[in-house]
Specification:
Elements (H helix, E strand, L loop, with lengths): L1 H36 L16 E7 L6 H9 L8 E8 L5 H5 L5 E6 L5 H9 L6 E6 L3 E2 L3 H8 L5 E11 L6 H23 L9 E4 L14 H11 L3 E13 L4 H21 L10 H34 L4 H25 L5 H26 L12
Parallel strand pairs: 1-2, 1-4, 2-3, 6-8
Antiparallel strand pairs: 4-7, 5-8, 6-7
GO molecular function, one term: glycosyltransferase activity
Family: Belongs to the glycosyltransferase 2 family.
InterPro entries: Glyco_trans_2-like (IPR001173), Nucleotide-diphossugar_trans (IPR029044)
């Protein structure tokens, strides 16, 4: 029984640390750092003359429905026109995307007739970039007018090799539960990213909006499922930082429903497992101790060990209760069962179109972790393909 009890407390610690403990520890470290070194000072915004040249790259596959809206958003960006290029890289698009883009003289169109996947498209576009920096964004996301200036400001710190903007998720209609669950997750994730950046470096950039120094880009395998994460983490592996700035943000609508959101989560989970293997050198605490600490705490545990630990925790807890190990185990099992029942209720209510944020939050948490197991299967079947499997947005 002692062995089971030890395993139980190890599992409980891992789950708690992954989702709550790391955030608490990060907050405490940041507070201590500010007490010793003071709060970080804000770098002045560069003048128009000081701003670097920048390309905005948009990788697309069959995005005819959003071309007009995206180009309207792009034209509204506040950046000197003589220092700014717009590049669309269309990967095997067979709708009217290229035809519509031909109406915009400022667009550099890079087209590949063969659909090889987003990573291959991104690398194809990078070979054509002639500017000091390149910012990546998705065709279906809209970025704020001052985003590129804010990104340029972050690059004035020469330790920075990548800048990650903030992802914001909106619902087209009030009460869209998939969007609300996704939005809640990203608000928490954004807080952790901000603290990670202040401690040392954000652990990976999200493809909705990030920018890099193209001279630092390492060759990402074409079958990478998380091209944005791999490209940005390769830069960290070379000794540079990822700066996070919520002042540059990308707004996109949440998935049309939870089934479409499941496609995204499954692919992200598969890509996370793939990335852990490819970036396994970064797990070594003797290479870059702080990076290893942040990477394992923020990414690796979520994408690998913790979902398995959650299952083990429930099973071990039930066995300990059956063995009458003590009232504390009875209470914790009751809390676990209540939580999973709340998640089930959240799922059933959402399927019937009813709204309960508390129950849905429990469901979304379980949903994310279940998709890690689905991601394992997806990775086995799609490890040699980086092609898009787009989730429909609301």
């Amino acid at each position: 029984m002692l062995t089971l009890e030890i395993l139980f407390w190890i599992c409980l610690f891992i789950v708690f640390y992954t989702y709550i403990g790391y955030g608490m520890l990060l907050w405490l470290i940041i507070r201590l750092k500010r007490m010793v070194k003071g709060k970080p000072t804000e770098t002045p915004m560069p003048s128009d003359e000081e701003l670097p040249t920048m390309t905005l790259m948009i990788c697309a596959y069959n995005e005819q429905d959003v071309v007009a809206e995206k180009m309207q958003n792009t034209r509204a960006l506040d950046y000197p026109k003589d220092k700014f290029r717009v590049m669309w890289v269309t990967d095997g698009s067979n709708d009217r995307t290229n035809e519509l883009l031909a109406e915009y003289p400022e667009v550099d169109l890079v087209f590949s007739p063969e659909r090889r996947g987003k990573t291959a498209a991104l690398k194809h576009g990078l070979r054509e970039v002639k500017t000091q920096y390149v910012a990546f964004t998705d065709a279906n996301t809209m970025i704020n007018p001052g985003a590129l200036r804010e990104i340029a400001r972050q690059f004035t710190d020469k330790t920075v090799g990548c800048v990650s903007g903030e992802k914001r998720v909106a619902a087209r209609r009030e009460g869209e539960m998939a969007a609300e669950g996704e939005g809640l997750y990203w608000r928490y994730e954004s807080t952790l990213k901000r603290w990670d950046s202040e401690l040392y470096s954000t652990m990976g950039a999200a493809g909705e909006l990030y920018a890099v120094d193209p001279t630092l880009c390492r060759n990402v395998p074409d079958n990478a499922l998380l091209d944005d994460f791999m490209m940005s983490m390769y830069i960290v592996d070379e000794g540079h930082r990822i700066a996070y700035t919520p002042e540059a943000y990308a707004l996109e609508y949440g998935s049309a429903d939870i089934h479409e959101e499941s496609k995204r989560k499954r692919r992200i989970a598969a890509g996370g497992l793939q990335s852990i293997w490819w970036l396994r050198k970064m797990l070594n605490p003797f290479r870059q101790p702080l990076v290893a600490f942040q990477y394992i705490s923020h990414r690796v545990l979520r994408w690998s060990l913790t979902p398995v630990t959650m299952v083990a925790l429930l099973i071990i807890n039930a066995v300990l209760v059956a063995l009458r190990a003590g009232w504390l185990y009875d209470v914790i099992l009751a809390l676990q069962v209540l939580f999973y029942l709340a998640a089930l209720a959240g799922y059933l209510l959402s399927e019937r179109g009813h709204k309960n944020k508390l129950l849905y939050t429990a469901y979304y948490f379980v949903f994310m972790n279940l998709n890690v197991f689905r991601g394992m299967v997806y990775l086995k079947n799609h490890n040699n393909s980086g092609a898009w499997e787009k989730a429909k947005r609301s």
